[in-house]
Amino acid sequence: MNRILYTIATVAAFASLSSCHEKIIDERPVKPDTGADGFMTTTYMNPVIRNNAPDPSVFDDRERTGYFYAYSTQNGESGSSDVVYLPVYRSKDMVNWELVGNAFGGMERPQWVPDTRIWAPDIEYIDGRYCLYYAEGHWDDPKRSACGVAVSNSPTGPFTWTNVKDINPLADSNGKLVDYASQDVSNSIDPDVIRDEVTGDYYLFWGSFGSDSGIWAIQLTSDGLAIAPGAEKVFIAYDLEGTYVHYKNGYYYCFGSKGSCCEGANSTYHVVVGRSKNVLGPYEGKDGNLMSTRNSAFDSEANTILSGPASGYFAGTGHNAGIVTDDKGKDWMCYHNYWAGNKYNGRCMSMDEIVWGDGWPSTKTGFPSEAKTPGPTWKIAETKSGPVQTDNFASGSLIETGDSCGCRNTWKYSQENENKYEIKIFLSLIHI
Description:
The chain has 432 residues and is an all-beta fold. It has two helices and 30 strands.
């Protein structure tokens, strides 16, 4: 076999870290505006995803892949040639996003969801696998709605639901978690999974509007794939949907959306928030009203942190995704809204900074930013070239001929077929 010359720049590199996770090193050149402190400061203008991306969920996966990922409700009608079952976007900076695929791969979809769109995903990394939570929603019959889970070894999928029971015998054969039949909760949509920072237990939050709905929470098994044995649901809030729970400085903050979500320029969606010392509540607003009390008092200006602007440039602002902290400690929240720039055709994904004062979150103006705005700040990763390697593929490992980066390297390859090889580089030291 011919001798082949390799450098780090031309192969996929994987770092062996103390956490035992493989970290992909992306050595494409970064060309940001950088300061003397080595940080990249982004600038953006809403929306940051100008496609139809309703009910977004943003996931920070930099530890493993080096990317942020965003997932959204299904685009296109089921069975059509342009359908995307749960679009997957990725970004290096939360400003520039690219569509990288379909969470379920090709035209596939969970077979237990045959005749409706797949809604409102959420994703977590639990026990070495990516767990994708999603909803089967029915406008015409809320009692048919349900939430399920699928798994993958990659954040881009394909996610599968049929093997969930193989991983956890307590799981449903199709990965279904909650529905009306099992929990007496209609409109069982909009799943959000949160880890209790005190106990380490995982909880599913789900639900929506309706007299027999509301927001509920229930404990999951430690792998996030089934309802924990003996677990009972706990009531969280009335007249709310699109729940997202975030832990900060000893409090759990329950964000949710009120108003009409889907009437284009006439939508009244807006984000409210309550907090609790306990993951299961009760959640109290800044004005002292409880989320679990059925009245209109909670829907007050004091408890509202984001709504559509009076200008009408955006409308239907809500269903916020995960809060991401940048490398200078600022928190950023993504959400969807209708945008006049696309004639209010579909819900795009926007982003704004969360400001904390007196233990409560807010946005700078209470409305989506419309002008060019300073965005998240990220530390620039230093990259160095590795040693030149040669090999005739006879020994099962590459021959190290030098060490230009000051690291001790182990090189391995695997042969898929006669003509295709995978090269992995394991570095004992990575400077980031």
